[in-house]
């Protein structure tokens, strides 16, 4: 609550700084704003930035480090006997962590807390530190804001290059924003990588990548039945490939043909209705597709299979694949439509001018010219299919069968990641860590596909520019 | 107007439009390859071509000149129904090829365009090999029965377009890799390969340097032996150099047409004189 008030006060100060800066800029030149290097509002922003940036940076840093500083101080203040076990030995890292957790919980009054006198005392101390810290922060942030605003205000003059400085500040802000995405990606990769390395220290990468037996359970006791887990991921890769293949068999022809129709044949009116409708398909939540696959398509295949004497399991690869294909149609059609319309009209005219019909022109000129772009779009769609989770969770099943029969139940990498991480798990068992290794593989595959796709698309673009 | 009328009838029966717009380019008794009577083109509400009537003689080069936006390209595109590909374009009046109305219902624009080829302002080779660029037309029209015949056609077309010597060794290279002038000659070769009777050229040299332009002009002069050529150009020198007849367009009207020499030395109309002496346009 106090933090919120502080932010509010800082914001008000910033606005005041802005007005003061603008006012001073006008006053400095006696109302003749043309004598100013920058417009008055830039001077206002200049002062506002000086007011806001240092204090908010301080505030942010405090938010980041407050709790660890307070914890360290509390830890240092604990009586030495609290850090020793009953046997007189120093407590282990984990034990200290538990103790600190206890103290923090007692301090915030989250749970009934420990009745231990030491913990109670430490909690009080902890609260005391935090309260002092909050006052310190408030004082420091407010004085920084006032000082900064004063400094900026002082510097306002006719020659001050306020616009350049403000624009530089905006540019830096944009750079920070754009790096956030990059750093997040790097962070995700690193966490995947480290957890995978932990997994591979227990299960050999060769077994993981080339083994054909997937049964990721781990014994709790040594004498348990079925205690030997299998971490061969080939059945998962095969299942993923099978379902993605079925999906592409649905999505590519339908998507491509609808793209050709929309780009070349459809009257403008039809196009303006059909294209958004197709793109709505992309907006349907995948979990809804999942219902559709599990409750409508899968039973349909099972029942029609019975008609022909085939036994199709109710969680079949084909149901999941077809529904996934329907989900991907808009990707293929929208991207293909874009590249087909990007083929210069001169190509069409050149072909018509030679007496080619529309279909000859499309087959022999437009599609070959658009092919790299279409392929790029399809590759993007494939990587989407491989990473798709919800539909396969609901419709593809969990059995890790190594099969190429689309009527059997298969499982995919994403489904297994979900099942490995759902529920209460020991976090350092190979079973949980396997999820990270699978995630890493998935990430690498989609990354490679995306890189290839982007490369292909870019190459295509150069052709006409 | 009766769409079944022959060109000869058209010449005698057509009511002479006002001004000089209807003056035939050919004298009485001569057979016009292409002729237009009361041709109008509308782009939506815009009246782009107004009551144009003219005749284009066989084995001659006819040049269309005029300031930008005067409708010369639009009119050129009427002659092989390229305007059909634009949704909002509408053509009225009579345009005939060898006396046949090309806008008649039973005429297929696809077949018409095989007879009336076209070369565009910007060279537009397909992103295929040089060979495939030229073989494209013969393939879709089934002109060549076997591979040797196709090769024969490709070679003759390249030869006629004066490009064979330059590209002989690299027929499998992409046509887009050629220089601008070579690309334009490739496009001419591509048009020739379908054995058209008329070749329409829409400012074929506007994207080329003077040397490439000179080559194309030379080529046009040679092609005249076998084809009827209509060329739209912004360069009056070019019109004077390559054409036998010239038609001057202004704001959608055909102002004057006649022998090139006469147009450039003794223009009948005030506007024509103004344009060719550079007073406007």
Considering DSSP H and I runs of 4 or more, what fraction of the residues of chain A is helical? Answer: over 70%
Q: What profile does the largest beta sheet of chain A have?
A: 2 strands, antiparallel
The gross shape of chain B turns out to be globular
Give the assembly state of these chains: heterodimer
The CATH level-2 architecture of chain B is identified as: 3-Layer(aba) Sandwich
Cα end-to-end separation of chain B: 34 Å
| Rg from Cα of chain B | 19 Å
**Biggest interface, which chains?**
A-B, 21 and 29 residues
Low-confidence stretches of chain B at least 5 residues in length (pLDDT < 50)? 1-26
Mean pLDDT over the residues of chain B? 85
Question: What's the mean pLDDT score of chain A?
Answer: 85
Strand content of chain A: under 5%
CATH homologous superfamily placement of chain B: P-loop containing nucleotide triphosphate hydrolases
Low-confidence stretches of chain A: none
CATH topology of chain B: Rossmann fold
Pfam family, one (chain A): BPD_transp_1
Family (chain A): Belongs to the binding-protein-dependent transport system permease family. CysTW subfamily.
Main location (chain A): membrane
Domain ABC transmembrane type-1 (chain A): 237-453
